[in-house]
Amino acid sequence: MYIYQYPLSIQFPPALPSKMPSPINIGIIGCGEVAQVVHIPTLTFLPGLYKITYLCDISPATVSHAASKTPSQEPIHTTQDAEELCSSQSVDAVFILGPDEFHAEHALLALKHDKHVFVEKPVTLTKRDALAIAEGEKHSKGRVMVGYMRRYAAVVDDAIAEIGGRENIIYARVRDIIGPNSTFVGQSGTFPRRFSDYKPEDISEWAGRAMDMASEELSGCGAQVTEQSIELYRGLTGRKTVLTEGRLGSHDLSLMREILGMPVRENPTLGASLRMPVWNVLFNYGHFTVLYESGFHKIPIFDAHIEVYSENKSVLIKYDTPYVKGLPVTMTVRENVDGKFVERFVRNSYEDPYTLELKSFYSAVREGGKIKTDVSDALEDFELFGMIMKNWKE
After folding, report:
1. Where are the domains of the chain?
2. What angle do CA 28, 125, 54 make, to 5 degrees?
3. For the chain, what is the total number of helices (H) and then of strands (E)?
4. Beta-bridge mates of residue 276
5. Alpha-carbon span 235 to 21, nearest angstrom
6. Contact by Cβ (8 Å): 76, 70
7. CA separation for the pair 173, 393 (Å, rounded)
8. Tens of pLDDT, residues 297-336
9. Is domain 24-147 given the CATH code 3.40.50.720 in the classification?
10. Are 197 and 59 in contact (CB under 8 A)?
11. DSSP letter at 270?
12. Where does the Gfo/Idh/MocA-like oxidoreductase N-terminal domain start and stop, copy by copy (predicted)?
């Protein structure tokens, strides 16, 4: 009789840990598009790490719809009162996904109740409010992560290693010119819905805050305050205007900081064309320049990438829309190897940046891990906004 013996090199799966991870109970403030398309599905796909227990939105229809899309063995608590959610014992961490104008108010409320905070970019619309959140975090048991998901893409660290240091760079391009966001949302398979049962006074307060906060920040950096400059500032921070589709300006600039650092402080921009709907800025990094170009059009395409050049190599990171889950972030390396042109295409993971971001947040909350995109990091965006808006001319 022949008895098969396993080769010694075979690798069996590791045994499951005797103690399974403890899920973080999540309360969500703001149940609109990004919650329905991105965060509720992603949190649901990580049941060992997260459990959604509470939902809040000023629109009764929106919060009801979001609850219906949230699978749970227990009833989901719903409310229109952020204080109720933040004070609940059934919430460990608060996801702040509502309008940018209310980020600071809700973050400070969560920190007051010692909750951990995940706040979508931008952390807020004014540097003053961002500093207030940083101060609130010092007096809370909670920690704050800002949702710059692009920086958690698996390929980013590989790209930094390929570049090999800022001293090697001779030029870089940062580009994000995209078509209608509704195109990508409509093909996401998440079937989000928008409702109009807002109170008129809520819409009025929202619009008023947007104007006041943008005006404050523009005045602070010495830029003219006009309807056009406010519209551009909102494009940089992440949204064109109140109740319109989101834009990705702060994602681009945050990734630029991750890979390239900050421009020189003296004479940081060498030129700019700040026209709508497409704008571009030439940043001064001393021994090299960076062209940042962003905007929107009606072609249904998502053109977002950063490419860094050295004498013998270029490194390209390319992003597709994050609203269609599972589209990979890729890296293309083109280089001179002994006089030969060599091109390498790298896709090192199908895990999307949102998933990797939430895994990092779990590590920070449960294991004390480092938060890369904290409030002090986000404050550098306001410096970049100021560098850009100083070039504004009516």
Report:
1. 24-147, 151-350+373-390
2. 5
3. 13, 14
4. none
5. 40
6. yes
7. 24
8. 999 999 999 999 999 999 999 999 999 998 999 999 999 9
9. yes
10. yes
11. E
12. 24-148
